[in-house]
Fold each of these.
Amino acid sequence: MSDITFAPEVRPVPIPVREIMPWAIFGGLLMMLAIYFIGAEEGATTLLSNLSTHEFVHDARHLLGFPCH
């Protein structure tokens, strides 16, 4: 006799698209908001009147290639 026992085969369960879509849309909107604040929150298009947002995302702007100086 062998001491080896075989585990039952585990199959991945597909996730329906209707369950993924709301989270994908939410994630896309968050990414667009983040890109706005990193890339365009400065000058004429600013939503906030102070420079704290610009200073907070300053290094991310350079990392992603957005000019700011």
Amino acid sequence: MYGKAFAPEYQGALTTLSVNSSLDDVLAAGTERLRAAEQAGEHGEAARSGLAVAEAHRRLGQVREADLAWKASYRAARDAGDVAAMAWALWSGGTLARQRGALPLAFRLLRLAADLGERGGDIVVRGYSLAGLAETGRIQGDYEAVGRLHEQLLAEARRRGEARHTVWALEGIAQMHRNSGDHDTAYALFEEAAHIAARAEDRRGHAWALRGLADIVSVRDGDTERALALLTEAEESCRAMNLSGALAYNHKMRANVCYRAGRYGQARRLYEQALGEFRAMAEPRGEALSRLGLTKSLARLGRDRAETAAELAELAGILERIGLRHAREMVTRAQSELGVGPAESPAESPAGARARTAR
């Protein structure tokens, strides 16, 4: 039995904040409490409130501010001798690093966070940090390495009745099944995640689950209208909480659904919208995937084949440098689908040449 979802990253005087609190409200409350704690010389409280500030900035796509905030939280926790708070700050920094595409840094910070969480006796931050490691490996496409960790974390979350973490684990496992072609299992897991999130009033988790369901409904069933309806429902929660990243991924998925349905003009506009959103928050993975979808849409709308080939070659190099193996395979499939190979013309762009060399 799962209780109501809660947000353990909202700590100290901010524990009254809900998992569904608007990020603008979280940022305002966290900033106010942080200033008061700093003026009073309360390092522990400054660390805890600073964590909420860092997470609000990160989820709003404000990368520079988030980077400054998690580091300040870590310093305050260190000054207070609070090992668990140090772990939470490192978890936030590692999560931000993954969002920015700095995967080696994400692994390093999240491993440190898990170790400090264990030393500090905080099983929640240890679990969140291990989950962060699992998610980082998953988005790289290293399913064999992180699949067992996802299952382990799911079992632990179920045992403790933690709805939010259970939903996260279910969605991660579902995504791996979806990317491996097991759409039926993926659908069942996304559906379970959606039910648990709804009962636990976890709007963020519910929105991500609906996005996953929309993807399966589109690719497996070809039901474009139902997929778009699910995404519209998810978008309402994203906007209510001002979830910039989740909203951008929602728009990219809407573009995917339209592309699969042959609505290439609509897909192009949505990919362009998502691309702008990802660039605004310096999210290289989402940016690259949006560029891939946009390139495919433009090709379907009659773009020059050489330009398409050069763009795909450049994207291949970008994704290899980030370390996203599954996404890199998507580029290979796009090259096959569109009947274009890596750009080989002497007149290709320098970026395209670098991408070809990187392969």
